[in-house]
Amino acid sequence: MSKERIQGMHLTPIGGAVVLLEPGDGLDPTDADAYLEPLASYLQVQEARRLIYDLATVPVIDGVYYDWLKSVHAICAICGVEMVVAGMTPSAAYALAHTLNETPPFACALNVDRAR
Amino acid sequence: MAKQPAKPKGADQILIEQLMLNVGRISAVIEERGKNIFVQGNILSKDEINDYSVEFLELFVMLLQGGAKVDRRSAEFKALRQFFTTMSQQIQVRGGSMEEFVRYIQFMQHVIIEGLGEEGELSGQQLKETLLLLAGVFNDIILDVYRVYLEQKESTIQAQQEELREISTPITEIWDGVLTLPIIGTLDSSRTMIVMEKLLERIEQDRARVVVMDVTGVLAIDSQVSHHLVQMIRAVGLMGASAILTGIRPEIARALTSLNIELGDVLTRSTLAEGLKEAFKYLNVQVVAGH
Known SUPFAM superfamilies for this protein (chain A) (predicted)? Predict the structure, then answer.
């Protein structure tokens, strides 16, 4: 498995044209432009069909982070990749549901296994 | 050498002497009263009353042996307070009345005071000091007893509130991966918070795939309630589970349309049974009648 490190995130192909994205501490969700192009490029090189965005280590998802997730979803859609958000903690889901005024465009799964 | 006049007895000595001289009578009076109050009400047995009376007098004498100035931090004083705390807890647990118990403590004090009058040898100053000592000790004891009573009440209320919270969120795993949540009554903000928190935790804990939320028991719905419902369904979706809303009665459906509330892409079914069928379908589960 070839691991790719775009600054602030780990990208790992986990088989079956699925790529796992694990955000790191250095990820700046306010600067989506810095990540989207390298991400799209990586997904295309890997011929990915699905991107699993693992949120297990993200304790809070505020409006800014949600917008970032939507941006990732949008770029994935353009590349023909389905994005699934996995591992949202109950507290993060609780807080996000209170701020959302729409149904998220991306699919959600309880954990990475379920998202595969 | 002229003989020094005898130092007047302190309040502690007066009380010790009085208790030593009249221990049998005081103990008998206290026991008798205790039996009238607690044995008749089946709160304490005769033996328990006897033991308590003896223990009280022992502890009280031990406290007085420490001097006229009662040290509230002393081990003896702590022991006496602990004695009443334990007795108070026992009486409460057995359904006794706190008022009666406090009256019983006051009665103990009165018995000791009455004994003082019988001696008739005390000066006004000695009497004052003795009464002040008794009042100080017994007031502290009564305050302790009430503190314990309030703590016990508070923990009972907390336990009841917790029980109510559990009852108001009866989330059940009705099938492997299927949770049901019947909502009964009103869904206000604070209740939504509790229900939602519990539900999301259960989804994670039980690795649920489908949540069937039944609102048959919701009598009225307004924009706020429907907003809360949508929030809950959205949170369920964010956890990777699917929500099915069941039991929307015709008048509720009518109210929702009148309020221009759209439930969006929320999956709805008329009854809980229909909702369960949908959940099974989602999980590719077939329920077949047995022979």
Answer: SpoIIaa-like
Q: Cα(B263)–Cα(B228) distance, rounded to whole angstroms?
A: 11
pLDDT at B41 > cutoff 90? no
The residue written with tokens 């979803």 in the block is A73
Mutate: best of B211, B236, B239, partner A, most A CBs <10 A: B239
- Number of domains into which chain B is organized: 2
- Which residues on chain B are in Cβ contact (under 8 Å) with A54? none
SS3 B80: helix
Flag whether B3 is in a domain. Answer: no
- Chain B residues with CB-CB distance to A98 below 8 A: 231
Best CA proximity match to B206, nearest among B239, B229, B237: B239
| A58 contact B CB<8A | no
Whether B51 contacts B86, CB under 8 Å: no
Q: In CATH, what number is assigned to the domain containing residue B144?
A: 1.10.490.70
User: Taking a C-beta distance cutoff of 8 angstroms, is the pair B234, A102 a contact?
Assistant: no
Chain A residue with minimal CA distance to B233?
A97
Q: What tokens appear for B87 in the block?
A: 């007795």
The nearest CA of chain A is from the CA of B224 a distance in Å of: 13
Q: What is the pLDDT of residues A18-42, one digit of tens each?
A: 999 999 888 898 988 889 999 999 9
User: Which residue among A85, A92, A110 sits closest to B207, beta carbon to beta carbon?
Assistant: A110
CATH for A34: 3.30.750.24
Residue of B73, B146, B130, B141 lying closest to B108 (CA atoms): B141
Number of helices followed by number of strands (H, E) in chain B: 9, 5
Q: Give the residue ranges of DSSP H helices in A54-111.
A: 63-78, 90-99
Kindly tell me the sign of the dihedral angle through the C-alpha atoms of B229, B235, B238, B242: negative
Note the pLDDT tens digit of each residue in A46-100.
999 999 999 999 988 999 999 999 999 999 999 999 999 999 999 999 999 988 8
ipTM, 2 decimals? 0.87
Q: Is residue B186 part of a domain?
A: yes
Those residues with Cβ within 8 angstroms of residue B41's Cβ, 6 or more apart along the chain or in another chain: B96
pLDDT in tens, B199-254: 999 999 999 999 999 988 887 777 787 888 888 899 999 999 999 999 988 888 88
